[in-house]
Write a structure and sequence with these properties.
The chain is of the alpha/beta class. The chain has eight helices and eight strands. Strands 1-8-7-6-5-4-3-2 form an eight-stranded parallel β-sheet. The radius of gyration is 16 Å and the shape is globular. It binds D-xylitol-5-phosphate and zinc ion.
Length: 231
């Protein structure tokens, strides 16, 4: 069984009850907290900063926090997120003037590092840095907003990225972000992804008054992944 990880994107959670939302979704069996950082500059939206990451840790969240930086520049904010308890820090190569340096800085700060590829960004940014990358994140929507539809061309790109990882011999996770739902997660896994970000696919599910509402949606995703694994 592949080591699949489900990473709910808290962008779609109820921000007024964020600690509780994260507790509930992790209790439902999700693995990683996906934390979208937008700056109204690199992307046209504004979301969460290190203070919120730190607040989740103080609240008692112990699951890995996967900080997806959609900010430009990236280096200044990396140590702040490391101090705030980030586990992974990923960034878009177009947003850094020195990709190798930014990757090195993330590891120096004690976090796992990753590069994020927009739908039109070529994987060639990986050519000389696979030794410095713990995670490759393929965007299956254009970054900035939740609730968009999965771009089908990502499936071929996942297959390509998986080959690059296998050829490199390094232990690199392959994450996908945008439009991931119960009904397409198996196909996405079959294309090579092992880490699945889902925002509206999880947080928009069920009745808000029910604290256990994420149990069934996360279980359904796991069932789909188990089937993908047997293909
Ligand atoms: C988009 C963000 C995603 C977003 C995904 O820029 O990086 O993480 O929350 O949301 P859904 O799963 O609703 O497409
Ligand atoms: Zn994201």
């Amino acid at each position: 069984m592949a080591d699949y990880r489900i990473a709910p994107s808290i962008l779609a959670a109820n921000f007024a009850r964020l600690g509780e939302e994260v507790d509930n979704v992790i209790a439902s069996g999700a693995d990683i907290v996906h934390f979208d950082v937008m700056d109204n500059h690199y992307v046209p939206n504004l979301t969460l900063g290190p203070l919120v990451c730190d607040a989740l840790r103080s609240h008692g969240v112990s699951a890995p926090i996967d900080v997806h930086l959609m900010v430009k520049p990236v280096d200044r904010i990396i140590p702040d997120f490391a101090k705030a308890g980030a586990s992974y820090i990923t960034f878009h190569p177009e947003a850094s003037d020195h990709v190798d340096r930014s990757l090195g800085l993330i590891r120096e700060c004690g976090c796992k590092s990753g590069l994020v590829f927009n739908p039109a960004t070529p994987l060639s940014y990986l050519d000389y840095v696979t030794d410095k990358v713990d995670m490759i994140l393929l965007m299956s929507v254009n970054p900035g907003f939740g609730g968009q539809s999965f771009i089908a061309a990502t499936l071929d790109k996942l297959r390509e990225a998986k080959k690059i990882i296998d050829r490199s011999g390094y232990d690199i996770r392959l994450e996908v972000d945008g439009g991931v739902k119960v009904d397409n997660i198996a196909e996405i896994a079959a294309a090579g992804a092992d880490t699945f970000v889902s925002g509206s696919g999880i947080f928009a599910y069920g009745d808000e008054a029910d604290p256990n509402r994420y149990d069934s949606i996360v279980a359904k995703m796991r069932d789909e992944l188990a089937q993908a694994n047997s293909i």
